[in-house]
Amino acid sequence: DAMVIQNPRYQVTQFGKPVTLSCSQTLNHNVMYWYQQKSSQAPKLLFHYYDKDFNNEADTPDNFQSRRPNTSFCFLDIRSPGLGDAAMYLCATSRDYGHQETQYFGPGTRLLVL
Amino acid sequence: DQQVKQNSPSLSVQEGRISILNCDYTNSMFDYFLWYKKYPAEGPTFLISISSIKDKNEDGRFTVFLNKSAKHLSLHIVPSQPGDSAVYFCAASVGSNYKLTFGKGTLLTVNP
């Protein structure tokens, strides 16, 4: 029944070692989002895909990249993780843009950088 | 600069009483507001929303009030139940824009 699935739930990486987080959806939604949520902070949008079109937020560091090979899957790549990148990473989907389109969130992947 | 502020990190209420969660915003362009609820180890789930053309929206035990002049909204839960214990996020958007701007969340604990 899970609609937005994130793997792994916990990820430990080393400083500077590339890491990839995965998100999949069974909703067939057009839009997939990646949020970063640091401890006691608000979720912050990093980027999103509308279908195959990538949309980066202006303040997202270049260290963060994303891939969407098909409708169902979206990946977050962190090229050289720093200690400040330790956070919960939330994937979300919506059918389309607009007020009436609810965003559905996955459970998140908690990233620890050693 | 935080455009959506939830100034109370936590709130504790007794079962059966009213819970009031508050949210303030600074961006006058926001015209749609949402509340999301998050249980531990789960993602946020949509709870209720309100458009800026309204000042109240009700869904069962949950009511959201919007005061545009004060740039303030609140979520009322009546009566509160232990299962309502969760983190509540306030979020806002502009027009039909995809982007949700979230607050930091308020942890609600409903004591039996």
Provide an overview of this structure:
The complex is a heterodimer of chains A (114) and B (112). Chain A is mainly β and 114 residues long. Chain A has no helices and eleven strands. In chain A, strands 2, 4, 5, 6, 9, 10 and 11 form a seven-stranded mixed β-sheet that branches. The mean pLDDT of chain A is 94. By secondary structure, chain B is mostly beta strands. In chain B, strand 6 (56-59) and strand 7 form a beta hairpin.
DSSP helical segment count of chain A: 0
Q: Count interface residues per chain for the largest interface.
A: A-B, 27 and 25 residues
Outline the low-pLDDT stretches of chain A. none
Number of helices of chain B: 0
Which parts of chain B are unreliable, with pLDDT below 50 for 5 consecutive residues or more?
none
Q: Helix- and strand-based class of chain A?
A: mainly beta
Rounded to the nearest angstrom, the radius of gyration of chain B is: 13 Å
- Morphology call of chain A: globular
Q: Profile the largest sheet of chain A.
A: 7 strands, mixed
Could you tell me the strand content of chain B as a percent range? over 45%
Mean pLDDT of chain B: 95
